[in-house]
């Protein structure tokens, strides 16, 4: 019986320490997932015992008990993202080219040529020329996106190690105190 009490006390020591020391410093951007599969992005404003308080991108302060957190990702700097930037740039450049193509093919000043249809329509040569312009805008957008993705980059998310043993103490709605213990393995 005495050995069970010693084992229980040893299990509670890391849980008490984990509840007192924050896993992530205040001001750090985090992305967490709760047991209800709710995803929350925000900046840590404070730790209250076993509860993390976040300031999300949109909305009011959100308190999440650490016992409900399943996954915790932390921003650890930035990394370059040239290929992601290139793809975004190509999509923007190609989309711009298609908008220009559609706008110019509806203009009255485009000459359809002899016997090639009525005004306000593009001839095949005009369409070919405009598609080449769309291709050029796609390549130019990809090049600009490559440079921007390399310089600006994107956040580097890394998982934070959640404590395996957690102790939570909460006031109950009708008075009193509730104590919870969670052990993950």
Care to describe what's here?
38% of the residues lie in helices and 31% in strands. By secondary structure, the protein is of the alpha+beta class. The chain has two domains: 2-77 and 155-183, no CATH class; 82-151, no CATH class. A six-stranded antiparallel sheet has the order 4-3-2-1-5-6, with no helix packed on it. Strands 7-8 form a two-stranded antiparallel ribbon. Helix 2 (82-105) runs antiparallel to helix 3. The model is unreliable at 13-19 (pLDDT under 50).
Which value, in Å, is the CA radius of gyration? 29 Å
Q: How many domains?
A: 2
Specify the biggest β-sheet: 6 strands, antiparallel
Structural class, judged by helices and strands?
alpha+beta
Counting DSSP E segments of at least 2 residues, the number of strands comes to: 8
In what range is the share of β-strand residues? 25-35%
Strand order of the largest sheet: 4-3-2-1-5-6
Which regions have little confidence, pLDDT < 50, spanning 5+ residues? 13-19
Number of helices: 3
Series of H and E elements = HEEEEEHHEEE
Q: Average the pLDDT over all residues and give the rounded result.
A: 76
Q: Cα distance, first to last residue?
A: 24 Å
